[in-house]
Design goal:
This protein has about 130 residues and is of the alpha/beta class. It has four helices and five strands, in the order ββαβαβαβα. Helix 3 links the parallel strand 4 and strand 5.
């Protein structure tokens, strides 16, 4: 129930600090769930990584809800670079991944990952590193 900071090691002895902010739910900007207590921490980050599980009923809708909560809390958060990681992808075959790809939000770089199998974790770190360099 607390934001956690950690050091993420990338290639060539590079690293960055990452903040893991607990899940935001619909209505958080109004104090629902953990509310604005954690939304404040998001303002300090230069890149926002949205993580939505592959077994979501509608990844695009879930992303829109999260983005909407951030927008209602502070519209300036829309100025931050955003990335999307679809998690738990070790459960899916290539056909399902391609089907999911067609339903992802437009205009946001995305990657399918799995912490269990390590799928695309290095690619995600590279994407985050590149975003932080802009």
């Amino acid at each position: 129930l607390e934001p956690n900071l950690g050091i993420v090691e990338v290639r060539d002895h590079k690293s960055f600090v990452m903040a893991d902010i607990p899940g935001i739910i619909e209505g958080a900007h109004e104090g629902r769930g953990l509310g604005t207590r954690f939304l404040r921490h998001i303002e300090r980050n230069s890149v926002l990584l949205f993580m939505i599980p592959a077994d979501s009923d509608d990844i695009r809708r879930d992303y829109d809800i999260l983005l909407g909560e951030l927008t209602q809390y502070n519209p300036e958060l829309l100025d931050k670079e955003r990335l999307l990681a679809v998690t738990k992808c070790d459960m899916l075959d290539d056909g399902l991944l391609e089907e999911l790809r067609a339903h992802l939000p437009e205009g946001i770089p995305s990657v399918f990952i799995s912490s269990v199998s390590g799928l695309n974790i290095a690619r995600l770190k590279d994407m985050l590193w590149e975003a932080l360099q802009r």
